[in-house]
Amino acid sequence: MNIVIALAVLVWLLVRQLSPRPVKEKSVLGWIVLAYGVFAVAHFSPSSPITALDIVILVGSTLIGVALAALRAYTIRLRSSGGQLIQQGTAWTAVLWVVGLGQHLLSEVFISVPGLAQATLLAYFGLVILVQRGFLVARARSAGHLAPR
Question: In the chain, which ranges are E strands?
Answer without folding.
Answer: 21-22, 77-81, 84-88
